Amino acid sequence: MTFLPIILIFVVFYFLLIRPQQKKVKQHRAMVSALRRGDKVVTAGGLIATVTKIISDTEAQIELAEGVRVRVVRHTISEVLSRTEAAPRGDGDASPANDAGPGKPKSLLDSLLGGFGGGKRGNKP
After folding, report:
1. Do the beta carbons of residue 70 and residue 64 sit within 8 Å?
2. Range of the domain at 37
């Protein structure tokens, strides 16, 4: 009976802190692995750039201004502002730039706020 409050506190911490953090890390990992040339991104330092080349699983080359290209660690990219169109498939159809699909969150902010944040004003959820 004396361990019950400690166990209860651990369960509350798991559902309020640990689980959401793991979910956020998983989303970030998926976003970074889906980077491709032409995506407009924001780095952890707040720089807005365009991905020019994916060098490896851990590095990407980005263009900050015309002719100014730098190599960055892919995990320092904090957000993808806009996605490029995918290359056409064999049947001539191109997959959508944002493959989240209709009615699904299109950004990290939308996914955290459940689709109520960002976007156009005046739209009802």
Report:
1. yes
2. 28-84
- pLDDT digit string, tens, across residues 54-108: 999 899 999 999 999 999 999 999 999 988 776 555 554 444 444 444 455 455 5
- CATH number, residue 65: 2.30.30.140
Q: Is residue 13 in some structural domain?
A: no
d(CA 105, CA 44): 22
Q: Alpha-carbon dihedral of residues 48, 23, 115, 75, nearest 10 degrees? A: 10
**125 vs 111: CA distance, rounded Å:** 13
Report which DSSP code applies to 104.
S
Is 113 a domain residue?
no
pTM here?
Answer: 0.58
Quote the CA–CA distance of 113 and 54 in Å, as a whole number. Answer: 30
